[in-house]
Amino acid sequence: MASAQELNELNEKLSKLPFLNGYEVSQADKDAFKKFDGTPFQHAHLMRWYKQMKFEMGGDQKQEQKTAPAPVKPALECTSGSCHSKDVNFDILPAKGVQRDAKTGQMKEDPVYVAYRLKMFDELFAAQEERIAAMPKNPIKVTLPDGAVKEGTSWETTPLDIAKSISSGLANVVVCAKVNGQVWDLTRKLEGDCSIELLKFSDKEGKETYWHSSAHILGECMERYFGGALCYGPDIEDGFYYDMWMGNTTISSEADMPKLEKLYYQMMKEKQPFQRLNVTKQQLIDMFKHNPFKQRLIAEKNIGDTTVYKCGNLIDMCRGPHLPHTGKAKACKLYKTSATYWEGKADQESLQRVYGITFPDKKQLTEWVNFQEEAKKRDHRRIGTQQELWTFDPVSAGSCFWLPRGAVIYNRLQDFIRSEYRKRGFKEVVTPNIFNSELWKTSGHWQHYEDDMFTFKVEDDKWAMKPMNCPGHCVMFGSRLRSYKELPLRFADFGVLHRNELSGALSGLTRVRRFQQDDAHIFCAREQIEGEITAALDFFKFVYDTFGFTFELNLSTRPEKYLGEVADWDEAEGMLKNALNTFCSTNETKWELNPGDGAFYGPKIDIKILDALKRRHQLATIQLDFQLPQRFKLKFVRDNKEETPVMIHRAILGSIERCVAILTESFGGKWPFWLSPRQVRVVPIGKSQVPFAQSIANKLFDAGLEAEADPDCADTFNYRIRRAQLEQWNFILVVGDKELEAGTCAVRTRDAQQHGVLDVDFVVDELVRLHKNRALKAEHEFRGEKKEKLAAKEAKAEEK
């Protein structure tokens, strides 16, 4: 059974992830899923994850509860300042007028519960140390990843000792160790022969350990500063946070956060050791008598012995591992505070949350701060408003209103993919937006996605807006018996999709209710799988190269619970591996294996792109599906025998809405010429050149470019040039009397690069060429005056 803390942490994580293209299931998801006993109705984001997991893992969990369980009742009663039960009465909040340190703001006297908790910990820890000291000290062999073996002593040698035996420099940078595959504290004594991997901050588990320890330091600071009752304090993707019940007190960003951060630096300077203590469940209950929220968590945990950790005056229940001491955290930023509810439920206690992040050096923190500032500048919601690309309105929450210039981008992306379909053998189809629920019951989606659909009644039947295209494509394939000569049959669809995202989860273009995908489904015979996968990978590369993206490839294989025969899975995975090997050898790249992370109905290839800020995004997917063709009883005929095709799900841009958001932030609103809604601005120096400027704009527009003339000559010339640059017009053509007389224009770019005075017809032809070639850096590739002269010289030299 998952604990309330685990439920809350997972719900928090899932609230930030997009569900438009399906949730990417990892082994950690599967492990977490196994802990559930019933449905987590009271956690909205977790509920969606739970249903997706049931679908991915074959829906073999226990039957869902039909009604939501009653809310968890508090184990203890909290008033405005105290916590009460039959055997304890601790004042949690500080008394009015409590004396504080002038510099850090911390209370000069600790909350009452601190001394009680410390006394119990110290007694138990001393007894534990005695037990460890009495353990037999035998020679052990410690094997490193490179095969080297270090000598040690059981119950005496620690991973940190091993790091020191290699080099003092290594000992200074490692943060934890992996002992026989399990992540350990560096100061925890080894118990026998083992393998060790020393982890740094740059390693995934190292970063998790670093930020989890940092959360404990924050918890200590919050107790010293606010009193209160600590609740959850996990590491997250971007640092960590801690929740605290503080009665009616709220945290001020201006008054409290700077002092809290100063206190945090003091805790780091003290180099407080993290001490690990094994405790029984009863000891845990006794140790946290003062805290009703920890009591609730303990009551929900179906465990025996567990561990707590101490740093300074803080003691917290935790599985660990942790840093050797608080001084390992070198640079800190407490960057946000907000209000939340216990377990994310509005009918529970209101809590205060503080977010923070730490790094091993100040340089990394500075880089992170600069990154956050740059990310804010590039926020697609901000840029979309500034450039008048799209807007949202409560009358259709979660559905984007694409303004004329935004629609240019939207349509060009579709046209880009559509132009490739003809070359690559895809047949575009148009399918209905609404379907009878019987379709979704046949496909298996109704049991898992009904709550995510917009449903309504038509006469006596229940219908729904489609949230995906694959069942409709199955209907089209099955509309008649197919011949093997028709395979592979590639259906492509830009159909409008709707998913009933929670209103609180909607966010710009990344979480919407109405969207379109560059969706395609390939129906093929088994022996055609490898060729189709290779072709799909080539398609991905072509598209992502056009955007200037690099990408990563992962193969997710048969999960623990799957449908079908092992032999079929092995054959399909072998084909995917062959396709990946062929593709990677040709393109000098690599792929990684994610064992057990495939969908229950077939293996898949996950493709993640890296944007300009080196952030990872999953847009594309290739999934093999053995089950949907069987559900719809799809057949093709070969040698007078009926066979079932294999279905390949394929998307490159994925949700076009989400793709536009990623492109906006990656380009920072500086759209590449071919995709830009503002390609050419023609600026006349004076009124007398306005008609000539307009005629140039008309030529460009008739050639398929987004071009406008600037007729407003009331402002100064320099101001109009600067305005065009700030509005991100890729090219700015300037015309005066000389240009009017000669039929030329002066060509410059938004970045003030000048290409000289050129014939208007040449400029039009050159801009059309760059547009058709989808030049990523057209402003630099433009063949201006100097390049033309150089080309002429080279041509003459070749003639001689």
TrEMBL record:
Family: Belongs to the class-II aminoacyl-tRNA synthetase family.
Residue ranges of domain TGS in the record: 138-200
GO biological process terms on file: threonyl-tRNA aminoacylation
Organism expressing this protein natively: Oikopleura dioica
Record's subcellular location: Cytoplasm
Keywords, sorted A to Z: Aminoacyl-tRNA synthetase, ATP-binding, Cytoplasm, Ligase, Nucleotide-binding, Protein biosynthesis
Catalytic activity: tRNA(Thr) + L-threonine + ATP = L-threonyl-tRNA(Thr) + AMP + diphosphate + H(+)
Protein name as annotated: threonine--tRNA ligase
The Aminoacyl-transfer RNA synthetases class-II family profile domain, residue ranges: 406-684
Recorded GO CC terms: mitochondrion
Gene3D superfamilies, alphabetized: 3.10.20.30, Anticodon-binding domain, Bira Bifunctional Protein, Domain 2, Threonyl-trna Synthetase, Chain A, domain 2
GO MF term set: ATP binding; threonine-tRNA ligase activity
